[in-house]
Amino acid sequence: MSAAVEETSLGLDNRKLAMWVFLGSEFMFFGAFITAYLMYLNTTAGGPDGEIFDIVYTSVSSFVLLMSSLTMVLAHHAHEQGDMRRMRMWILATAFQGLVFVGGQAYEFTKFFKEGLVPTASPFASSFFVLTGFHGVHVTVGIIMLLGLWSYSRVGKVKASQPLKTEIIGLYWHFVDVIWVIIFVVVYLIPWG
Amino acid sequence: MATTTAPPQARSRSVFSRPTALDGFKGYLATTDHKKIGIMYFWSVMLFFFLGGVTAWIIRAQLASAESTLVTEEVYNQAFTLHGLTMVFLVVMPLGAAFFNYLIPLQIGARDVAFPRLNAFSFWTFLFGGLFLYSSVLFNAIPNGGWFGYAPLSTQIPGDNMAFYAVGLQIVGISSLSAAVNFITTILNMRAPGMTFMRMPVFTWMTLVTNFLLLFALPIIAVALFMLNGDVVFGTQFFQPATGGDPVLWQHLFWLFGHPEVYIMILPAMGIVSEVMPTFSRKPLFGYAAMVFAGVAIGFIGFGVWAHHMFTSAVGPVARSAFGLTTMFIAVPTGIKIFNWVFTMWGGKVKFTTAMLFSVGFVSMFTIGGLSGVTHAIVPHDAQQTDTYWIVAHFHYVLFGGALFGLVSGIYYYFPKVTGKLLGEKLGKWHFWTWLLGFNLTFGPMHMSGLLGQPRRTAVLPAELGTDVALYNVLSTAGVAVLTVSASIFLFNLVTSLRSGEASGDDPWDARTLEWMTPSPTPYVNFYEIPEVTARDEFWERKYAEAEDGSLRPVPAGASQDHDPSTSPASADEHGDEFPATAGGTATVDTSGNAKASPDDVALPEDEALAKATPDDHGGDTEHIHMPDPSYWPLIMCVGLLPLGYGLTFANPALLVVGALWLMMGLFGWILEPVAEGDDDDPEPSAAAA
Amino acid sequence: MSDATTADATTQAAHHDEPTVRQYVEIAGALSVLTLMEFSTYFVEFGWLHIPILLTLMAIKFGLIVGFFMHLKYDTRLYTRLMVTGLVGALTLYGIAFLAIAEVPTLMGS
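ok -> structure tokens follow
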């Protein structure tokens, strides 16, 4: 039910509160995958290990995802100003950058496959692919939500008076970005050796 | 998707017209009403409880005699796995959810939960998850690796058995996670005016703690199940020792979830008992703040004891010592709760209704289970007990003697609220005493057979254990027969009381909290007017005041704080201190042991307190109350989980794609549909006035 | 938590303090520089400081995104608490699990 915000016990919007509650639990979700990855760093069963990562390539795609957070927050800002044209532009830009990231990840995966790093190769490979793969699924879900937001704002279902809808999707998007900030350092950059 | 192209302002922008029926079969399919969802949870649980009982019979029939060959080892493995999964995930947890659903909005003075359609989604997901798990029967692939699914056994069993386990639990987990988000938001943000955190009923508090536990524990098991699913179906190597995978990782992840899960099952029952005990002792709950604190403490410490399930596994001495200590610590808040319940009864005018009997049964049986539980904290002792029937006895004393007794107590207590009829007391007492007898007969002897060395999870009772152990097993099997009789009495009682139970009136127990301020059965809108809360036992405070000699007397009509603020009683924390004696005379409240409080007993205060809750004041007009409309979308969306689930089980990409697209379609249809017709979820200023 | 009812209700009013477009772009610039610094550690040798540097940079980026892009700096503290609960909970629980797992091979080796 959507009681007006002032009527709620905490003076908060239910939907935004629910999103934060959900994001709290998501830390536990990705934390478990990262733990498994760290545990299996050297468990490569003779297969490829972290040396296979292309740091330059991943840095570029990480940068793209990072900048998508900027366009996301600009979309929210534009929505708050009631500037729906600009909001839609930034939303599309965000979704596009998300697509670039996911596409980059797909390309990276196929490259790894060719070099023998497949999910079934070793516990290291399994935990790498499941960790980054589930992050990719999160980004994909985010892209679907962004495109939904974009189309709904075009047909007037999302109105200029409802910046909260952009804000909530933005919270999810930034969260996915923040998880990648962690993955980028922990998985790719730190030379655990 | 055709749905997205429809003009946005049209009333029927869905592919089908919005359901409007509130009653009947259709009304249930499309309902977003928390009360109907709670009732559906209840009946689904009854179905699964029956199935859990059938599996229990297979186990006990096989173990009734030593070296029995009644069922094959494969069937036995499937039976005990399914028994555990059913009772944990499809009986105790959702029975708790049934109470959350029905009671939480009523207890906090709300008209529904924060997200009614998400609530319906949670229910359908739970039901489909349970049916998915049981559909493994059709594929001859019933999970057979234990409810704990230990790797590497679970990853090496040939067939799809453990894939059904991994995916089935995943679906049920989605249900619980979405429910957790929903109920946390509801309790934090939808309380009636004046209901501060420290005025919330203890059941609401325990629900909040339980849902936080779910929120943080479920992602862990989700990850573990995804990994297991990968290992079993897709060839990943997480728990495969051959390539260096560590099966102990599964144990850590499983019990990181599994131990909070124990408290997820017990805390709702503790909450219910904390409602029942004060009502039938006619005293406020002893040590409310300590009770709440203990519940929260159990929630916190419950996350820090998981490795005591692994003392005989690959865990080092430092971890053993640390987890042994934390396990002893958690007995402290639990002990606080036990003492507070006893002190609540102490000096009270205790009425032993069936609900109260079950609550007292809860405290006694749970204490036994708790004491045997503390023995697990002693590592060398635990090393002797592990994998024996001592453990089986222990967790049945806390989950059956604890959680289930408490929840059944809640069924007797809240049946009048839900139906407007009393659940038969005479049969109820028969139910209780046979239940108590059957329970102790079944699980009491397991302590002995366990200490004598009977291994659990073993299909054949070894004859070499001797005749004593064989006798204990015969007793256990006899106990299940008694429990079956008892459950039949309960079912008969339930059905006959539903058909022709005695009318209960609105407040049959002379209760204390907000949910009893609504008429019974609860009307669609719950509260015709949202009450203003000024005290912890709000309803009680509206009914009674304490006279100078400490005795209770009804608040006379017109003297309640709702009508005359100048005579308002002091707050719950200090009630009775300076209440003005507006009416002379001594207490006239009937406190006899009559279980079915006759209407006259409380007529005076009740009329007064209920006045705000009756529709008459408002000419029966509920039109202006903003309620969510029914919706088919949660049910439709859930259907997509089935192809997705079978796709993950059988590694079928086509099914995966169908499932994902179906879910997406359902999601978009869901979003396009407003919560209530003619309404936008962010009302424009002009629309808000209407 | 009991004071949340009254205290948090007032924080809604603080919404107008939110950053301007210019500030958002500046924050993104800072994030870019930090990322570049992270990237540079791949080529420069920092010795034992290598991992602490990376983790610090990561933490700063994390803080900037949740603080400004996710508005935690301007929003009710309840949201921050929810996030911190999840984050600290994950770090603690998985940290302990990790140590417990690591303890076993150490024993076997000795």
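Residues 1-13, 561-620, 682-690 of chain B have pLDDT under 50 and may be disordered.
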